[in-house]
Amino acid sequence: MSGYIRRAAALCALLLIALLANATRVQIFESSRYGDNPANRRQAIVRYGSPRGDIVVDGRAVTGSRDTAGMFRYERTYTDGPLYAPVTGFASQVYGTTQLENTHDALLAGTDPLLSTVPLWNDVARARNPGGNVVTTLNGAAQRAAYRQLAGRTGAVAAVEPSTGRILALVSAPSYDPAELSGSRTAVARAWTRLTGDAARPMLDRAIQQTYPPGSTFKVVTAAAALDAGVVTDLDAHTTSPDPYQLPGSNTRLTNEADGCADASVRYAFAWSCNTVFAKLGVETGLRTMREAAANFGFDDRTLRIPFPVAPSTFDRKLDPAQLALSSIGQFDTRATPLQMAMVAAAVAGGGEVKAPYLVERTTTRQGETVSTTAPRTLHRAMSAQTAEQLREMMLDTVEEGTGRNAAIPGAMVGGKTGTAQHGVGNSGKPYAWFISWAQANDAPEPAVAVAVVVENAAGRRGEISGGGDAAPIAKAVMEAVLNAHPRMRH
Amino acid sequence: MIQPGMPATTRTGDAPAPALRLPRRRGTELALILLAVLISVYGYCAVGLAKYGTLPPGATRYGAGLGVLALLAHCAVRLRAPYADPLLLPIAVLLNGVGLVLIYRLDLETPRDRAAPAQLYWSTVGVALFIAVVVLLRHHRVLQRYTYVCVVAALALLTLPIFFPAVNGARIWLRVAGFSIQPGEFAKVVLAVFFAGYLAANRHALAFAGRRVWRLQVPTGRVLGPVVAIWLLSVGVLVLERDLGTSLLFFGLFVVLLYVATGRTGWVAVGLLLALLGALAVSGIEPHVHGRVEDWLRPFASIEAGRGPNQLAQSLFAFAAGGALGTGLGLGHSILIGFAVKSDFILATAGEELGLAGLSALFLVYALLVERGYRAGLALRDPFGRLLAIGLASIVALQVFVIAGGVTGLIPLTGMAMPFLAQGGSSVVTNWIIVALLIRISDSARSQYDGTAAP
Question: What's the pTM value of the predicted model, to 2 decimals?
Fold first, then answer.
């Protein structure tokens, strides 16, 4: 009997070994596979288990954390949520993260290995660093000015620093309060349903995610292409441009809003936004050259990130001459984000170079030690320095005596270009008002800001919507905010 | 010259050498009990420190309570079973203490549903019964007289819950005056006594009588009939009650004891074949069982179907989150398992918060308990005592394997209580009785030890 008992004991030993081996499999070898399963809520619990790092504007945090003592413990709070929503995005326990909350999630949540001073220590000790901070390039005054000016309208503002590409303002209206999506209460689900179902699309970041026909503001690109290609040599020489202009190979006759466009000089045509002159100029410059010029300004770039992706602006690759004529004045299939048009203005202001736009100045640990910094980077040369100088002159003229007078700022040089883009089937929609511009304080060596404004509609306003009337004052307010905040202007 | 510390038997050469007596080792037992209590109190404090940063308010009371229970049990053993194995009681105290810590820890996540006080109450009842068994049961052979009383009792205990309403799909509960009792738990012990008694009396007949069919020795129906009938009946009742874990346990117990009693491997083969057929038949008939097998084969099926993780997936998540060293007591999220987290899935909390290290330690402690039971069986001479010791130890071994294998995805999950750890009054009480019987058996084994091995 003793032998049988021993064998039964051996069976028990086998069972023990099976249990230990299986436990090792689950807890060691397949541990990360189970841990990474999206249905495992531990990651979310850990992510929200400590206060999230902050997003900083002008040295002041525009985000915060509230301790709820629940399972997903800390909820995101926002100061001026709707103002900064296009930049911060939201951090929701239920709906995930967007914008900077998304691209810098690991740093804000404290899981980024860069936050750890000793490599791999966190893995060994199961420790977490406190969430780091994201310092933005935004200029709070410019952001507030743009947001205030857009109140009650639908539109967007993008402002960049021409010499670096730092994004100074990124505003979309109407906006939403990302704080409504923090947490896992039922109110969050209700807010989500309301916001995603809203016809006004408050969660759309129009400054970077929406493309519009740029209208006449695109004439900056057309002029740069024509000047660089040598199609135009003298800005003041008369062109051979009929008014109206019959589009090549079609019966459509293009007209102008302004007078005196027939055979007008390029300088006059730019200041008064003559469609006929620029449509013909685009055809004369040719499809290939126009495409290359647009691409050098940043059009058709599918990889642009600021650090979240920007919708690509487009200039079509297959166009017949009539379509090319329309595309050259920012109609037909030409589409641009407000940020892209701010880059166009910045290229002129910056001597012809297009800088990569960016939102994150640097990232820091909770204690403020720098983790990473963003260095300015040139994307392309959009035009020669000489062409840029000529476009500067024309844009200055436009604000001094042309369609952009509403943007003039005393004590500063302001160059601009208006646009009123037709859209909809048979151009039936209410036109979009555009204004792109740059500003340089009289005593400053270089322009401090380039801005693009688009207004889709102006609620409660009667009459025609126009770039000079609706968009230029907004651009002026943003530029003034930057110039006033600029250190050179302070003393 | 007589060396100090030499056994007294060498002192006199002329007198007949008295039987070799093993040391009693009660001091060792006391020291180990104190260690077990200290580990439990330490765990209790660790939970409080992790959750609130302070020692939990009842730390001293909890430690004192557990200590007093353990000391009373120890005194009973010291007085009535002085030669008992010194490891059995400390293991029981440690497992019960750790179980209370884990349940207390999970109570913090469910403030409206506290289970630790009731568990402490049932532990007290368990220790009281332990003392009663150790004091009142003079010798394990007394039980042999009640072999056939036991079978009637087992059947009664198993059939009783059929007349009570089902709870969570299983008819295994008896609700009397506000208390829920699981008679199936007590039936385990009673059935072990019956199997041991019956097989001890008939093992030769089972092993050698009967006709030979091919290479198998088939015993006469007169001998085997009662056993198979009882077994079929108990399994049938359990299938009716939809408590498959216990059914599996009874079957395993039956096969192990049959093998140990007769030494016929053929019986084990026949038994396993029967089990396989039974399992196939039941999983074909019962959607409940079929679902368990499906869950085992594809634990993430419900996630892929968009219904979220099921309990087994949550349990696996918990174990995986523990890794090698665990998150630390009070710092895991095994509460996500939800229903039955304090009972069937209690091991997941241990796995997550104590890691593979802690889990392996628990497994080894259980293995030690089983090993001590087997050792007592080996040391005894009477077949009934041997079979009873093996049976009781096997109950613990099989139960641990079935539930631990189930919650870690080794075998299909069947609801069963982890001995001593899991929430459940009947289970704790039963386990204390099992340990009391093992103490009684090991006391006989070690007090009559004469230096020679049993045949």
Answer: 0.72
